[in-house]
Amino acid sequence: MDDRLTVLGIESSCDETAAAVVRAEGGRGMILASVVLGQTELHAAFGGVVPEIAARAHVEKLDHAVEAALAEANVTLTDIDAIAVTAGPGLIGGVLAGVMLAKGLAAATGLPLLGINHLAGHALTPRLTDGLAFPYLVLLVSGGHCQFLRVEAADRFARLGGTIDDAPGEAFDKSAKLLGLPQPGGPAVEAEARKGNPARFAFPRPLLDRPGCDLSFSGLKTALLRTRDALVSHKGGLTRADRADLCASFQAAVADVLAEKSARALAMSPDITAFAVAGGVAANETLRARLQAAARAAGTRFLAPPLALCTDNAAMIAWAGIERLRLGQADDLALAARARWPLDSRAAPLLGTGRRGAKA
Ligand code: KG4
Ligand code: ZN
After folding, report:
1. Residue 242: CB partners within 8 Å, gap ≥ 6?
2. Domain tally, the chain
């Protein structure tokens, strides 16, 4: 039987306009093209993603991204078996732009339409890159999200815990801002931290005293602010060493908390095939090393997909579409765009979820 499937993926839930063509054959996926058009320069002056500007840019760029992806994959719409699009969660204007384009293409071609949860796209990526078998554990750490997900099937996810306030990437970004470092803050803080002493400042390790896998990062950022202010009022400013030590101590606290909570999530899931990480914060080398150590201690394989597939992209959306198609699922033209869309509807709602859908 011919099990070959070729799916066009579309992603526009935050500030990346992305399109991709992914082919699945014999159980494995192959990325034929993955186009990601960023918008960083459009938002730079505002210190964060401006939803209206993002939505307008998606409307302008989406069809170019799709054309570029089809051309790069050397296919036309007649070679495509289905159209997969991020239908949430995210900034609603951007999600709508993608969903409307996908609906237009589906209506014009008669191809099946698949609305994909953006978080499912991240969580299923290790199956595209490494063919992981279910169940496995994913830590999603990005600018907008932080959660432990037990992936039981392509359409079944259990959230073991998550942040009750800021996401780690958001904490890195805000901390960078407090120290006068450039955005995005994660890479800048990591570079400073390499030169600093992680033991100089004893920043809190929030929620370690509580059972379970929930996390909190907003207090950590406040502690950094207070320490910075105390140093400034004491010495009239920050030295280079102070800044590096603040970054190193902050990063050590984030890594400690994520490593300990990962150990707990791993202990709750003795039957998993691997522990995978996803999201932009997974680029952090200190953090990766700690997560890898936690997996090793639990006797589990650790997996970090290539960075271009950890950050927002449309290949993960196309792949999640392939997974849904294989389950015999599809949507119709009534597909709705959703700003909020928890992956695990059984889990208790979180008090907060980072930047509330800005970046996921
Ligand atoms: O996944 P991503 O590209 O966008 C979403 O949030 O979906 O992640 C971006 C986040 C930003 O907050 C950025 O500061 C953080 O990932 N980040 C890092 C590093 N590289 C990117 N955080 C810590 N260390 C890094 N090396
Ligand atoms: Zn994302």
Report:
1. 231, 235
2. 2
The rounded Å distance from CA 257 to ligand 2 centre is 21
Q: How far is the CA of 239 from the centre of ligand 1 (A)?
A: 26
Residue nearest to atom 10 of ligand 1 (CA): 143
Q: Is 311 in the pocket of ligand 1 (CB under 6 A)?
A: yes
Nearest ligand for residue 118 CA: 2
Structural domain for 81, as ranges: 5-130+309-358
Gap from CA of 313 to ligand 1 centroid (Å): 14
Q: How far apart are CA 279 and CA 72, in angstroms?
A: 25
Asked whether residue 171 falls in the same domain as residue 219, the answer is yes
Q: Which ligand is nearest to the CA of 38?
A: 1
**Short-list 153, 154, 150, 188, CA closest to 169:** 188
Condensed to tens digits (0 to 9), the pLDDT of residues 225-241 reads 999 999 999 999 999 99
DSSP 165: S
Rounded to whole angstroms, how far apart are CA atoms 28 and 190?
35
For residue range 296-335, what is the model confidence (pLDDT) as tens digits? 999 999 999 999 999 899 999 999 999 999 999 999 999 9
